[in-house]
Amino acid sequence: MKSSLPHMLPVGECNPPNEKHSHSLQTCVPSAMHFWKVFGDGIAGRHAEYCLEALPSMDSHAEDPALATPAPCRDFPKRDTQWINSAEDEKESIRRLIARLVTSDQPGCHPVSSHDIFLYPKGMCAIAAVARALVPLAIDRSEAVVYGWPYAETPLCVKESDYKRSTLLSAGSKEELDELESSLAAGRRIQILFCEVPSNPQLRTPDLRRIHALAAQYDFIVAVDDTLGTFVNIDVLPYVDVIMTSLTKIFSGLCNVMGGSVVVNPQSSHYTTIHSALTALYEDIYFPLEAIIMAQNASDFEQRVKQCNVNALAIANLLATHPSIARVYYPSLVPSRQFYDQVRRKDGGYGYLLSIVFHKSETAVLFYDALDLYKGPSVGTNFSLAIPYSLLAHFREQDWAETEGGIDKHIVRISVGLEREDLLIARIQDALIAATASH
């Protein structure tokens, strides 16, 4: 693994950009934003702050003499930088915690070690790392399948990772698995199948046992995003080759740091291939300050997950009985519960996320407006958080998301936090009363 020290480029103060440079920058911004959004690559906020402080003390080197300028300040800002070399301990503590929690409870399963775990600056970086690293050389098997309706950027990440073909099986249904199996039996070859356990925002769980059996028979890799399920609640390792997790979410909980991880199953028949491919591309660019804060935040990860499980289950059960609500998406309340239960740990719960679809769209709007919770696009925060999911995740493609994925345009997603259960229930009830008072 390469050094975790920040990559400081000698790019000091330079002349103001001319019209040509400004035009080029404006042209590049949309592509750069798309790349950043889909793959997650880019430095963290704390890394950027550190760089900005250092820039005035750095010379600028460029082929264009006009851009090669001396540092305006010769004294590097004085600040505590002991953390630069100290974060290796924190990174190792994160890896050890993940290794302990992700190890399977099933008899005969080998324990996961720190060597099996890769850390990344963001969750999307982890997904992108797996997608990129495992693009095969053999054209005839260069296909990636995304099974089920996932986080909005995942299919794009897979599609743009140089596979010759990528396929989204958006329903995540038995029928789609049947069709996949039939095509594999007829000679189709795929390299990798991505899925979520459970999915976002419909909280559906794929039939991992069947997928695992197909993977063994037809020699493909199974990659699972367990961010919503968590290491604490579910035990997917016996059925998958690699696990990707956004540590930004409930692993951190405080919504003040980002991170991602990849776990390679030590008993996977593809272990050497996956681990070698990831290692070949891996560079430890997880900024030390980010790792330190992540390690601090994660110290009570298990307890927080269990409390969120209790709160979310109570809210889901309450909402499921309300006459104005058509559907509640929660792992214990959807038809795929049996598949979730197959991977649920003995003391595991059903997670912290749920989604609601009302019979009437206007009721959804009134409920959301009246709901006394924080509003925002993340999940897994220690405080409860709600969003109109389709409006934010699929703003320019709501019709497509509804047609292809069954994502109702007025679906409300709630990430349940650590507040007192009675307080949360009261706020949900108040919002329901406000939303239905005129009906």
TrEMBL record:
Organism: Petromyces alliaceus (Aspergillus alliaceus)
Similarity annotation: Belongs to the trans-sulfuration enzymes family.
Alphabetical list of PANTHER family matching this protein: CYSTATHIONINE GAMMA-SYNTHASE-RELATED, PTHR42699
GO biological process, one term: transsulfuration
CC cofactor: pyridoxal 5'-phosphate
One of the Pfam families matching this protein, by short name: Cys_Met_Meta_PP
Protein's UniProt name: Pyridoxal phosphate-dependent transferase
Entry-linked Gene3D superfamilies: Aspartate Aminotransferase, domain 1, Type I PLP-dependent aspartate aminotransferase-like (Major domain)
SUPFAM superfamilies: PLP-dependent transferases
Single GO MF descriptor: pyridoxal phosphate binding
Keyword vocabulary terms for this entry: Pyridoxal phosphate
